[in-house]
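Quick one:
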Amino acid sequence: MIERVERRHGTLSRESKHRKHILVANIDQILIVASAAEPDFKPNLIDRMLVTAEQTEIRPIICINKVDLVDLAALQPVIGAYAQMGYKVLSLSVRTGLGLDRLFLQLKDRESVVLGQSGVGKSSLLNAVAPSLNLRIGEISNAFKGKHTTTTAELLKLSFGGHVVDTPGLRQFLHWDMVPEEVFGFFRDLRPYENRCRFPNCTHSHEEDCAVKNGVAEGRLDLRRYESYLAIRNSTKTSI
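Output:
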């Protein structure tokens, strides 16, 4: 018997087959998991998830896994860029144990969801910090494309306090209920330049005297992030 329905908070959704797909609700934070290699590091996918985190006002934590497979110094520019924006970034390795203590502290006594493409090691990370979960993990294919091991979202209780939702791997992340004009406001690094453009309705793509374009040209803004903004804006439409 249903006695009452509580109001949701921290609801995370995406578009799937032109419909709203609610991934999870009542969460405090999103763990955005990417791999440094195998599969390749995809910062643009991170940006897409960050945009949704900004839209829903859910705290994001960027978790870069498998850093033992690369020269960590090569990742510092992108790690530094995200950190300068105020995002928490964890460099992690299940093999060496790097950063697992920090991940433990971020999960403890919080309600979290783990997002990322297949093969980045979401379940392996959870097993490393909470062995009692004993989640099934898979191998990476020869083409370094992750295979789906987690097939459904599952709410897991953590022995040290809190809960975590382990989700299936994402091949893409399409935004729901977002129009192109909103996208710029969800980029923390670009947002301060919004009122410096010549035109109040500047799209920061083709206009003259655009403060954002000038900032990119002068090296004050990151070119990759700007290109990511344009790609997301161009792919966003009003969802009904």
